[in-house]
Amino acid sequence: MLSKLARATVALTLTSSCLVQAQFATKVPAAEASAVAGIVEDDPADFPKFKKTGSPAYTLYSEALPIPAPATPKYKIINPVTNKEIWYYVGALEFEIKPFNQQVYPKLKPARLVGYDGKSPGPTIIVPKGTESVVRFVNSADRENSVHLHGSPSRAPFDGWAADITNPGEYKDYYYPNFQSARFLWYHDHALHWTAENAYFGQAGAYLITDTEEDKLGLPSGYGKQDIPLVLSSKQYNSDGTLFSTQGEDTSLWGDVIHVNGQPWPFYNVEPRKYRFRFLNAAVSRNFDLFFVTSTATNTRIPFKVIASDSGLLEGPVQVDDLKVAVAERYEVVFDFSQYAGKTLFLRNDEQAGDGK
Ligand SMILES: [Cu+2]
């Protein structure tokens, strides 16, 4: 609250057009004012700390980067209310939630995941702005689910609120408006009591809105060609190769095996040209601080351009030499490999990101 003296000073310096604002400031309800006054800042000492965990050793860069397949709408109709096209992702059960095994460690037991028709991350939905969509999530898993499209102003029945669960044996059709400008959203489980567990075990995927304004910019394009989603997650494995569970964990699970599109530390062969990389932090606790180096100069970070964040394109590209991506955030970058023909580059993470840094 402003003191009487402060309020008088403010009023004197305001122009007449600001008087409404000044009046508004003095009409904050008492309950709200006391609630605001009662806000206690987080104590950094309370933040979850990085925990050293002991997953079995994994051979770096032993497998190629998988690219989640683009989802295919089964049919398209015109919404008679909005007159907009609706793409229906309901036919092929590509969004059927069910368990599958992933052989993460070649000589150990497979890990049991729960993803979408045997895949995690799930298929990437790519829709143009102004085209509506309906996605059928079928629950063939062994516990309830609820799907949240993170970043979408979805109507309440389709927003995946935690108690709006779909039980095993049921399905739900989610309707999405897609009226925002081009941007990177993501879908993930949000079921009450199970969100972290379900997301960590595989229920997450990318959702891209495109638009003609973005198309005009000449950015590296072609999904899976020069426009590459990089869905990051961090997991922990038991000594037998099975996935360590988040269940019972009440502070954080940092994980020590970094996955990109579901594959630990993959390699990716690129052409000497510009690429658009779309980063999503789908980890349940770990933040990332990413940077590029060459294999021969690992202490020299190579500049690159950030072009978009959670809300789509920035006003202009921003050149950086590292990029922090907190849990659930999306950032898109353009990296130019044209000077690096025949060379090996590493995309690295500062292990301590989020742990006091
Ligand atoms: Cu979310």
TrEMBL record:
<dbReference type="Pfam" id="PF00394">
    <property type="entry name" value="Cu-oxidase"/>
</dbReference>
<comment type="similarity">
    <text>Belongs to the multicopper oxidase family.</text>
</comment>
<keyword id="KW-0186">Copper</keyword>
<keyword id="KW-0732">Signal</keyword>
<dbReference type="InterPro" id="IPR008972">
    <property type="entry name" value="Cupredoxin"/>
</dbReference>
<protein>
    <recommendedName>
        <fullName>Cupredoxin</fullName>
    </recommendedName>
</protein>
<feature type="domain" description="Plastocyanin-like">
    <location>
        <begin position="103"/>
        <end position="213"/>
    </location>
</feature>
<feature type="signal peptide">
    <location>
        <begin position="1"/>
        <end position="22"/>
    </location>
</feature>
<dbReference type="Pfam" id="PF07732">
    <property type="entry name" value="Cu-oxidase_3"/>
</dbReference>
<dbReference type="InterPro" id="IPR045087">
    <property type="entry name" value="Cu-oxidase_fam"/>
</dbReference>
<dbReference type="InterPro" id="IPR001117">
    <property type="entry name" value="Cu-oxidase_2nd"/>
</dbReference>
<dbReference type="GO" id="GO:0005507">
    <property type="term" value="F:copper ion binding"/>
</dbReference>
<feature type="domain" description="Plastocyanin-like">
    <location>
        <begin position="260"/>
        <end position="342"/>
    </location>
</feature>
<dbReference type="InterPro" id="IPR011707">
    <property type="entry name" value="Cu-oxidase-like_N"/>
</dbReference>
